[in-house]
Amino acid sequence: MAERIVIHPVTRIEGHAKISIYVDAAGEVESAQFHVTEFRGFEKICEGRPFHEMPGLMSRVCGICPVSHVIASSKAGDGLLGVDPPPAAVLQRRLLNYAQVLQSHALSFFHLSSPDLLLGLDSPPEKRNMFGLVEREPDFIRRGIRLRQFGQRVIELAGGKRVHPVWGTPGGVLHPLTREARDEMAGWITESIESLQIALGRLKSLLDSLQEEIRHLGNFPSLFLGTVNHDGGLEYYDGLIRIVDSEGNVVADRLDPRRYYTFIEEASEEWTFVKFAYYKPLGYPGGKYRVGPLARLNVAQHAGTPLADREMREFKQRSRGAVCESFHYHLARLIEMLHSVERIEELLNDPELLGEDVRARALPNRREAIGSCEAPRGTLFHHYTVDRDGTMRKANLLIATGQNNQAMNMAVEQAARRFVRPGHLTEGMLNRVEAAIRCFDPCLSCSTHAIGRMPLVIELRDKSGRVLDRITRS
Amino acid sequence: MSVKTLQIDGKMITGSDGDSIFTVAWEHGIHIPRLCHIGGISDVGACRLCLVEVEGQRRLQASCLTPVQEGMVVHTDTERLRAQRKLIVELLMAERNHVCAVCVANGACELQDLAMRLGVDHVRVRYRFPSLPVDLTHERFGMDHNRCILCTRCVRVCDEVEGAHTWDVAGRGAGCRVITDMGQPWGQSDTCTSCGKCVQVCPTGALFSKGKTVAEMEKDRGFLKYIVTAREKGQWIG
Questions:
Q1: ∠ CA(A91), CA(A94), CA(A96), 5° rounding?
Q2: Among B104, B139, B187, whose Cβ lies nearest the Cβ of A53?
Q3: ipTM metric
Q4: What is the pLDDT of residues B19-47, one digit of tens each?
Q5: Chain-centroid distance, C-alpha B237
Q6: Which of A48, A93, A466, B60 is deepest in the core (most CB within 10 A)?
Q7: Residues of A with CB below 8 A from B101's CB?
């Protein structure tokens, strides 16, 4: 008898989703889908508003990565004004973007995924959480919380608030950074690097025991897309797009992110609110690609900071081509956090960071502009069209989670095929399916803006779509 | 000018004949809430937030339009008044789209200040969510009808102080809007002198300087007292 298993809601992710697992008549998993069940609609909300409001409005898209949206939005605003922000503003934006990557990755790794990694995927669900970790691993988890606090504190000191800072604006940022704020930030560096080295050592020591998961939680060939700087190193604020394949071959290089629409297209499906981005030349669904920490480490040749470079060299030895195991998003995330702290230290030592000129002013000089940056979960694009007075006519947000959508669905299906035994479902089986999603650290509130059509639970269905089993955890 | 003696909130107070209860109360440190009143221009009693109880009168009175009288006993802060004012602010919030978090005047808005002062932590009436335009056609200023509370400060300051009478009110009831000239876009107004007085007196983020981002708009309302004093007394005191 065919059936459908539903996991609803998927836990320890950012946003609301469910997973359906379809089982055939022989009782084997046939397919699985990751449905996003929430809708935000910011693309519509901003129509008719002044474009100068956009960084503040777009910051409200997400409580985890507001800074990324502020930066992409402010950069789109720079484009509409036709100005280059003053150097101090660019340095502040870079600083806060690294702080954003640090705090968001800390949340994903320590708060959301560490319970699986340190307590075990089969450990009792009532203990498999932050509280369980606080009991078992108090020092480790305290370090994770402190890392997130550091990132948040940098954002607060420069932007005035930890969440939704009112800080970026078309043409620059609102206020110069004070010397006191910079000195306080500098006080966190040593501890943060120590914590990250401990976390990296710990994760790497666990990898041998997680070989099954590494092989089956989203391990497949795909393209990888990310931003690199002029010499092919990791870049988060500016730079050009590079795409590599699973063998590590460069498929496209030096693509201008402001012309993303020439190489990225989006498709929509009626069973999820998130669109499916794909690499245009290869079509849908063949042009699937991954973005985010794993993709960035796959496309970049080096990090550009000493400690992260060492880790990156080791990381690249995990595969002859690109590292295709989505599980290694976790490892990539920790390496990026280390790199971010190193970059934050460099920026804090740059005397220009405290510059007084932080905003270029102009009337609108363009009708259309695109701002992009590397957000924690991947490459983020804000595409705005305005009328001659600066009223927003259209916004298109291309979000990392949308770009990873195809890969997430494949990861869920692969995990379900490998771990789910419909005849005798266990909680640990379903947790592995969710863990496949957690590798990507999707942010669903960020990614549901286009008016599409649909809804996340694990459901077991037969071929005719009849629900045979449904697991929810509410 | 004769002097009137009255009681406000139990205090014996004197005011000049012709002064409003509102003015006399403020002069004596009793701060009756208001949104449409601003010193230097006429009062119209539009917002109804300055309502007070006058003993002997069954209906609440708009203190900005009620002159003081000898022997009057006035209450400005009773339970009934607090409930009334809270409801008025809730109605204002529900009537249009006041989203403080993404408003240019966040942190510098009289409606927001008043809502906090009155303890408006939620709105009990259903939001109307009207679809309203933003007029950005003026080179320097913008008008967001979503944030307008129809206090008409802009209309009065433009007429009485600047003398341009660019602003006016059109429509009735829920369809009421402030307009420029005969309803054409602000940027096409023949009468607007671009002085910006309307922007500065606006209590919310409805009128703002273009180029300001969220929470960046601060309003300087001190200019009005300066101009009025200069005009009426010939004294240029900042």
A1: 110
A2: B104
A3: 0.91
A4: 999 999 999 999 999 999 999 999 999 99
A5: 24
A6: A93
A7: 60, 164
